[in-house]
Specification:
Elements lengths: L1 H18 L2 H8 L10 E6 L3 H12 L3 E8 L10 E5 L7 H15 L6 E6 L3 H4 L9 H14 L3 H9 L8 H6 L3 E7 L22 H10 L8 H11 L15 E7 L1 H14 L3 E9 L3 H14 L6 E7 L13 H13 L5 E7 L11 E5 H6 L3 H6 L3 H8 L2 E2 L10 E7 L6
Parallel strand pairs: 1-2, 1-4, 2-3, 4-5, 5-6, 7-8
Antiparallel strand pairs: 8-12, 9-10, 9-12, 10-11
Helix pairs in contact: 1-11, 2-3, 7-9, 9-10, 12-13
Length: 423
């Protein structure tokens, strides 16, 4: 059953990813302007930007004036009026700066009766960037990398990112005003807070420079971030730099949450049921360090009482505190940590993968593991201790590889339980 269970887990994952493609949700939330309204512009940022823009172009047709999108990859999607640039992720690059500048320049040229449709998906915090005054691009990149390695969660990272930017935290919407902006959001954050998704360029923010500095201190980064970065945050805390946009500043900005991890989980449950499993959604808010989350999920599988076979599902986003020099991502680390806990439980199969098809700086979406994998592979502990999960799964040939999926609703953990040890 082991190989068959691994295949089932991957089939369930792929079905979930298919359910959150932009073709399903963009048409449901795109406004329908009247012919007499002002010009319509399309802006998009994130890993699903191109696919979302394609659907919006198809529906708006000749009513669309022009558009601009930034994504982490260049998919084979025929955009007609929307220029596409590929930028760096998870650390911004020069194209990220070009994207940020382009959007702010477009906003500066709008008229009061113009309308902007803004399509936002995960990854936009890096793809859409600008350098704060007094800092350099290299210092900004270093700060992003420090946050990624610190173990900070996405809300914490994006709080800092907002306060190193003139476009995040509602500031793009502030620049668009008095024109109107309607944002369609694809959530890749636990809790689906619109202000956290992609660092909320068009959504009012409630965090402050003081909050950003508190996070810097929480993860002991004050002595590690560059002087230009720290000076900018300290000047903001002192009131010398305006805060991010508050609700009263964005009277013409609206947004809708169009898709989330919960939709993917429900699709996964339906597919699991069709394959003969008894599906149970544990949570769509699975957070915490990958190794701790692995223990929670494995414990749920071990304590499950039936009926069998079962498919336990969890969605969310874990974190990894990087202390080694290996290669991996949070999903592969989660799967490897779970593997250590199920090595004596041959009836459990554990898959963890990112719905965007990318797990950290690797070519994999995640991995699947079971007792058979562990029995045939090398000792997993040294790989886990060195944050080197990619090389472990490279040797066991149990990576999940999809390539970029043109969507992004966080991660999915799929745990198949064939029965108890006594069955």
């Amino acid at each position: 059953m082991s190989a068959a269970a691994r295949r089932d887990a991957e089939i369930i994952f792929l079905h979930a990813v298919a359910a959150v493609q932009p073709r399903h949700f963009v048409p449901l939330h795109l406004p329908s302007p009247s012919p007499g309204d002002g010009r319509i512009f399309l802006l998009a940022a994130g890993k699903a930007a191109a696919a979302m823009a394609f659907e919006a172009e198809r529906i708006l047709g000749e009513r669309l004036d022009r558009g601009f999108a930034v994504s982490s990859h260049s998919p084979d999607i025929p955009l007609q009026k929307t220029g596409l640039i590929v930028a760096g992720h998870p650390v911004p690059d020069i194209n990220s700066l070009i994207a940020g500048t382009t959007m702010l320049q477009l906003a500066a040229g709008l008229k009061p009766d113009d309308h902007v449709v803004f399509l936002l998906s995960g990854g936009a915090s890096a793809l859409l960037a600008d350098v704060p005054p007094g800092a350099s691009m290299e210092e900004l990149q270093h700060a992003f990398q420090l946050l990624l390695n610190s173990g900070a969660d996405i809300a914490e990272m994006n709080t800092v990112r907002k306060h190193l930017s003139a476009i995040k935290g509602g500031q793009l919407a502030r620049a668009i005003h008095p024109a109107s902006v309607h944002s369609i959001l694809l959530s890749d954050v636990p809790g689906n807070d619109p202000a956290v998704i992609g660092s909320g360029p068009t959504v009012a923010d409630h965090t402050t420079f003081a909050d950003a500095l508190a996070i810097i201190d929480k993860y002991q980064l004050r002595d590690r971030v560059a002087s230009g970065i720290l000076a900018h945050l300290e000047q903001g805390e002192a009131g010398l730099i305006p805060e991010t946009a508050r609700p009263a500043e964005l009277p013409n900005a609206t947004h809708v949450l169009a898709a989330s991890n919960r939709i993917a989980l429900e699709a996964a449950a339906q597919k699991a049921d069709a394959l003969g499993y008894h599906a149970h959604i544990l949570t769509d808010h699975a957070t915490g360090k990958a190794r701790d989350l692995a223990a929670e999920l494995v414990n749920a599988a071990l304590s499950y009482k039936g009926p069998f076979p079962a498919c336990l599902l969890a969605g969310g986003e874990s974190t990894v505190q990087v202390t080694g020099n290996g290669l991996g991502g949070r999903n592969q680390e989660l799967a490897l940590a779970a593997g250590l806990l199920i090595k004596n439980h041959p009836r459990i199969t554990f898959l963890s993968a990112g719905t965007d098809g990318v797990d950290g700086p690797t070519d994999a979406a995640g991995a699947v593991i079971d007792a058979e994998t562990l029995a045939q592979g090398p000792d997993p502990l040294p790989f886990l201790e060195n944050n080197d999960s990619w090389h472990y799964f490279h040797q066991t040939h149990t990576h999940i590889r999809t390539g970029p999926t043109n969507t992004n609703v966080m991660d999915l953990a799929i745990i198949l339980v064939q029965g108890t040890a006594n069955d």
